[in-house]
Prior knowledge:
The protein is α/β, with parallel strands linked by helices. The chain contains five helices and eight strands; from the N terminus they run H-E-E-H-H-E-E-H-E-E-E-E-H.
Amino acid sequence: MKSFFRWRILFLPVLLFFSIGCATNRGVVSLKQSVTTVPVQSSGKKVFIKSVTDQREFQENPATQDIPSLGFGGATAATAEIKKRAIARKRNAWGKAMGDILLENGQTVESVISDSLKRSFGELGYVVLSNEQEVTSDTLVMDASIQKFWAYMTPGFWAISLSCDISTTLRITVPKSNTGETETITVKSTKNFQTASEGNWMEVFHLAMEKYVEQVKTRFSRRE
């Protein structure tokens, strides 16, 4: 028994080193989805995604890892374009913030959520309009704001956990109606891994995005 614990202590630095992956660099990933704006089986309903706005707040040295922050000069020095592409902060095995992860050039959290919404409504049988001029009196017109889209690492002794939080507020209006509605869609994915490799980050991102799409579909499948 003593030899087992001695072995564990001796190899702990090695395990910690491999568990964090390349924590000091800036990673770039793509979260593209297959989006169909004209459904195979139409319900006769239409939706127009009017706007998607990133309202996340970045902090310097946040109290908890689920709050967005950036390496390489911090959020204060980052451009608005970099912030819209930022989706995760890397940490070392002791939880110290280091590198970060951005979406590839041309992709932002706004475009990812827009594609997720289009996919959700397309799978529900909606025709997703791309031109506001096509909006009719019974079209759902949607403005989305993003409060959370962030992934983070929580260190552990034998494994680490990677998590991704997504939360949006969807404001829906119908031209023929004088009132609007609001739906809040919030999802979280968490999974344990031995390393914080790019593939593992991607798995957690995609798990959260799938949950998001399913949550949107569940909420709007109830509408008459």
